[in-house]
Amino acid sequence: MKRRLLLCLAVVLLSCITAAAQQTTMQPLTFWYEYAVNPGKEEQFLELVKTVGAPVRDKLMADGVVLAWGVEVPLLRMPGGHTHGIWYAVADWSGVEKVDTAMRAQIAKLNEEAAKAGATKKGATAGPSLTSRIMEVADMSKTRDYLTRDLVFAATHTALPDGFLPYTRFNFVKVKPGKAAEYRKAWEKYNKPILDKLLAEGVVVAFGLSVEEVRTDGDFTHFTWYDMKDLISMDKIRAAFLADRDHRSQEEQDAIANLFASLVDLDASRSEVTRSIIFKVTPMK
User: Fold this and answer.
1) CB 158 within 8 A of CB 246
2) What pTM value is reported for the model?
3) Is 12 part of any domain?
4) Which residues of the chain have pLDDT under 70?
5) What letter would DSSP give residue 31?
6) 3, part of any domain
7) Domain of 237?
8) Taken in order 104, 110, 113, 115, is the CA torsion positive or negative?
9) How many domains does the chain have?
């Protein structure tokens, strides 16, 4: 997440949709796992995702615990950065606990099955454990987790097509101490209406303003994320923000720019774009 965060996503996360998303008070949590997959081990990593974590998250989604989950990769690579991110969204902390408990049970079960498989024949050695397989495909010393909360969340009410794999942009900012409430107020006044319009037009399918629920990173305090069906949507989003500012007087443009400059550390701002390779959301009801 952060390096996808992405915190993490994820949202960005993306995030729940459906009727639940219509609740204006909904502030879903997104748990992000960032991995540095070893070169040449990408297919093995995805196979582990599909056989280990996917059955757990799919079942919990059917049970109404998991609202959405996915796997994404960064569009722009960087030295030492993560290569893959797994995220799931839930309504509250009890959902985090249920996923954590189920995943621990799944890993223990698969490790036990691997040990038993090697003991079926006299003198045979146990097969590789799930834990050892994970350590083979990823550099676990670089694994990074985030838990984020959407302060503001909105998503399309239109059913997404089968196989939908969005791109997600994250804009990270570091709000100055004591300025969080003012930043959110300014964001909702000047940025949210533009994103609401883009959502209504289908340019974005979901968006949010998020923070770390458990603060682990000092590089940012808030991030805006939005899901898009394609990268050409980035041009449309940029054009919409420019058009909003351009129709205002120069005095108002300067006032908005000065307001945000007074609330955030501009040098700490940065962005990230990811591409989903697995993306699942709660079906529309």
Assistant:
1) no
2) 0.86
3) no
4) 1-24, 118-127, 283-285
5) E
6) no
7) 19-281
8) negative
9) 1
